[in-house]
Design brief:
This protein is 4% helix and 49% strand. It is mainly beta. The structure holds beta-D-fructofuranose (FRU). Its main location: cytoplasm.
């Protein structure tokens, strides 16, 4: 075991006494933005959800984590198990301590193989001689209780024809019981793609099968695919591919951020994907690198964040959170997403309230709101404070607009605008989950989603409504850690 400790490439094993406790004190100074029912890092930076898997009794959930600061440093995998997505029990983290992961345990997925959890992940390394990045694809084995048993490298370096950007293995079983994993990759001509490996069993050496082909996707300017995820919707006999392409041109009412998460629905024939529908997964300001797992239904977590962003919470030494778990379903080749039923079951009872131009709603910033928009224009403003800050949601009969212009500015807003749009004619059901500095918005039972951070300190629990007279409100249950 090596204890890495080189600038931001520092493992938690190198933490000085009380160092993390002191960082946690800084985190605790944040009285405005820490969420109550979303998973956020105890200290430091969280990014992608990783290794999601159901072990027959409970779920394993990991996320990318840099413990020491709100920056992308040495990545660990923080690990929890849960049965209900309300109470999370700490399990062994994946901590970089071998040469084949010297600069971080990057993203990946997990499979239940026999009675073990097989975690496939990327070992980020840099060659000491010239600092050149060398990716490894690694395998870690955990018990179902969450104890780490072993780690080993499966593949050293990128295959021929690809740059050093090969990462994020997501494993799955084939119909014949073999193990395949799909990795995001960059070709030598600097275009993005995904490549698939196969192994007969966990002791085997992976063989490269080739690239996933997806001709329906406009790959122009796309230089990297991150976090690919491939799964079958057996009820619908459809295949779904989810990934995070980087470099795609921004559009007026879709793909509006610096990077995006997309999905394709269609038919997979060996490695060839015939897509009938391709779209952005979530049209808010902050959503990336989602990953799914399966137990009776396909469920997805996403990172409420994006690469290269800073947030106002960085000053409190914490950054980003995960979405709530979302159940996925297909409706006419469109992927619908909505929080899993447990989230609704564990809320307080829905209450109907009349809203006006000035309505005070207790704990609005941790509330679930829902109303029928009746396909008519409306405007809602939330959290008005003395500095005239507020978050606004408006609909013109065709397009919904989430406006962060009057909230604390972030660098992304300067570069990529302060409004996010979602084209949705025939808007009825609107659902908003507020949790201090995040809003997860679902439209028409999950036909569209918009997930966004917003930063309004000293906010009032104030709602101003135009053309909406009644809303229903409830309070989701706080997350507990064991
Ligand atoms: C996506 C990503 C992955 C990588 C990980 C590193 O956000 O860049 O491609 O494995 O984050 O933390």
């Amino acid at each position: 075991m090596i204890i890495f400790n080189n600038g931001k490439y520092k493992s938690i094993y190198a933490a000085e006494q009380n160092e993390l406790a002191q960082i946690a004190e800084t985190v605790a100074q944040d009285k405005d933005f820490r969420p109550i029912y979303h998973l956020a890092p105890p200290t430091g930076l969280l990014n992608d959800p990783n290794g999601l898997v159901f072990d027959g009794e409970k779920y394993h959930l990991f996320y990318q984590w840099y413990p020491f600061d709100a920056l992308h440093g040495m990545k660990h995998w923080k690990h929890f198990t849960t049965q209900d997505f309300q109470t999370f029990r700490a399990a062994d983290d994946l901590v970089p301590c071998e040469l084949f992961e010297s600069h971080g345990c990057y993203s990946g997925g997990a499979l239940l193989v026999g009675d073990k959890i097989a975690v496939f992940y990327t070992g980020n390394t840099r060659r000491p001689s010239d600092n050149q990045r060398v990716p490894y694809q690694n395998l870690a084995i955990f018990t179902k209780e969450g104890k780490l048993l072993s780690k080993r490298p499966l593949i050293e370096n990128a295959p021929q024809g690809y740059t050093e950007h090969v990462r994020d293995p997501k494993p799955f079983f084939t119909a014949e019981g073999k193990i395949r994993f799909i990795c995001g990759a960059q070709r030598e001509n600097l275009t993005g793609t995904a490549i698939v490996f196969e192994m007969d069993n966990l002791d085997d050496t992976p063989r490269l099968l080739g690239e996933l082909t997806l001709p329906a996707f406009d790959n122009q300017n796309v230089f990297m695919w991150e976090c690919p995820d491939l799964f079958k919707r057996s009820h619908e006999e459809k295949d779904v591919f989810i990934w995070s392409p980087q470099g795609k041109a921004r559009e007026q009412e879709q793909f509006q951020n610096n990077y995006h998460a997309a999905y394709a629905v269609g038919k997979l024939d060996n490695l060839h994907f015939t897509a009938e529908h391709i779209a952005e997964l979530d049209q808010g300001f902050d959503f990336y690198a989602p990953q799914t797992f399966y137990n009776t239904q396909t469920t997805m977590f996403g990172w409420i964040g994006l690469p290269d962003l800073t947030y106002p919470t960085d000053r409190y030494k914490w950054h980003s959170m995960l979405t709530m778990p979302r159940a996925l379903r297909l409706v006419d080749d469109q992927l619908y997403q909505q929080p899993i039923t447990e989230i609704y079951q564990n809320m307080t009872a829905l209450q109907s309230i009349s809203v006006t131009e000035t309505t005070e709603i207790p704990n609005l910033d941790r509330a679930y709101l829902t109303f029928d928009a009746e396909n008519r224009p409306f405007k809602l403003s939330f959290f008005h404070n003395t500095q005239n800050q507020r978050l606004t949601l408006s609909y013109d009969g065709e397009t919904l607009c989430l406006d962060r212009n009057a909230t604390e500015q972030t660098p992304l807003m300067e570069q990529f605008g302060a409004q996010r749009y979602c084209h949705i004619p025939n808007l009825h059901k609107v659902e908003i989950f507020f949790d201090r500095s995040v809003a997860e918005i679902f439209l028409n039972d999950g036909e569209k989603a918009m997930t966004s951070r917003f930063f309004i300190a000293d906010r009032e629990n104030h709602l101003s409504a135009e053309n909406i007279s009644t809303i229903q409100i409830a309070y989701p249950q706080a997350i507990k850690y064991e």
